[in-house]
Write a structure and sequence with these properties.
CATH topology of the largest domain: Phage tail protein beta-alpha-beta fold
Shape: globular
Strand content: 25-35%
CATH class of the largest domain: Alpha Beta
Largest sheet: 6 strands, mixed, barrel
Number of helices: 8
């Protein structure tokens, strides 16, 4: 394929006009280049520009999605399934930080091919009296102050006195996800292995406070104008975030030594032990357990919240970090038989709706046989 043909196909891809046959042709063209080959600049142009245009396309699709569609998070970004061709091979392109000999990846067969399905909508709701209710897809539930359709729970904006306010806990297990609408209209997405504490009602003019006990959550906070200017506060084990109406993501899992907050829109203040930082859109703060400092850097916020839209995004992520994320969503355990492979770095985009079998096959295939997996029940060995 000559350079003009390659460029035409790539431009058609970015405009959602690429047919399956044309995409396969473009993918085959990219796959013909070994990881230790020179980037095909004559055919595709500057490598950095190529990658940037692809990431901008992802971000544009996310930003253009109506709020209603985003909240439902299901019927959206199907074209991404064809692969974001940032030099991608198949669903994902994996950039390695080292070179290796080419092997035939198809010669390896994953043992015990029990299909491990992706996570589903499910959670446990703990009421004021300590009773626990199971929430899951296909099962509706009604309480005195909330309704659930099995995919999200919505709280009523009923008038409540201070003496009547109680707190609920929403716990999402490994292999789950759930959505929540607080009584003030704030929308929250909870990822796998996450727990949130919140009041069933808020008072106008009073601080609206919730506690992310652990895990990951994406917030779209209702404007303070509806609550006499009251601010919104999120507490985690390491920090406090003050909000005035914004969109942001917090990641604070129990097995992590850091809390990561990423701002999509608006403004938030991060505080730990008297140290404060203000975040602007597309900035991220990192707070470590044993430090009082707050580290701030520039990020692509759209990539940070891709999980809300049904995607995994990795940019120079270690295989160890990737397996942590996959283990929560698929409720499996990964074990490294070759410890050195924990440090392998990968970049790419994957769909959360795929089975874990499909994802690890993709990683195995695109690693040119350097990474191999073996499934044994709910444990996946990495060789």
């Amino acid at each position: 394929m000559d350079k003009e043909h390659a460029r035409r196909l790539f431009n058609k891809y970015l405009q959602n006009e690429c047919s399956p046959e044309e995409f396969e042709l473009l993918e085959t063209f990219l796959a013909s280049y070994q990881l230790n080959d020179t980037w095909p600049e004559l055919e595709l142009g500057n490598e950095s520009a190529f990658k940037q245009r692809s990431w901008l396309e992802i971000e544009a699709r996310i930003n253009k999605t109506p709020a209603k569609e985003v909240f439902l998070w299901r019927s959206y970004l199907r074209l991404i399934a064809a692969a974001i061709v940032i030099g991608l091979l198949s669903i994902v392109y994996l950039f390695r930080n080292d070179l290796f000999d080419r092997q035939d990846p198809l010669q390896h067969v994953i043992a015990n091919q029990t299909s491990i399905k992706p996570g589903t909508d499910k959670a446990m709701l703990t009421l004021e009296d300590g009773s626990v209710l199971q929430l899951e897809k296909g099962a509706s539930l009604t309480t005195n102050n909330a309704n659930s359709n099995g995919e999200r729970i919505v709280y009523n904006a009923a008038k409540t006195s201070a003496s009547q306010v109680g707190y609920h806990y929403l716990t999402v297990p490994r292999g789950g996800q759930f959505q929540l609408v607080l009584s003030d209209g704030t929308k929250i997405w909870l990822n796998s292995d996450s727990k949130l504490k919140y009041p069933v009602a808020f008072f106008r003019g009073k601080t609206r406070a919730v506690d992310l006990v652990y895990g990951e959550a994406y917030f779209e906070v209702a404007t303070s104008k509806k609550h006499l200017g009251s601010n919104f506060k999120v507490t985690t084990k390491e920090q406090t975030i003050d909000v005035l109406g914004t969109k942001f993501n917090i990641r604070a899992f129990n097995d992590d030594v850091k809390t990561v907050s990423s701002l999509v829109e608006g403004r938030i203040s991060i505080e730990k032990n008297g140290v404060k930082k203000i975040l602007k859109p597309n900035q991220q703060s990192v707070v470590f357990e044993n430090e009082n400092s707050i580290h701030v850097s520039e990020v692509d916020a759209a990539a940070e919240i891709a999980w809300v839209h049904g995607l995994f995004t990795f940019e120079e992520a270690s295989l160890q970090d990737i397996t942590k994320i996959l283990s929560r969503w698929y409720n499996v355990d990964f074990k490294f038989e070759a410890p050195a492979k924990r440090k392998f770095l990968f970049t790419g985009v994957l769909e959360r709706t795929k089975s874990v079998n499909e994802l690890i096959k993709t990683i195995e295939r695109t690693s040119e046989g350097e990474v191999k997996f073996e499934i044994k029940n709910k444990t996946i060995m990495i060789k």
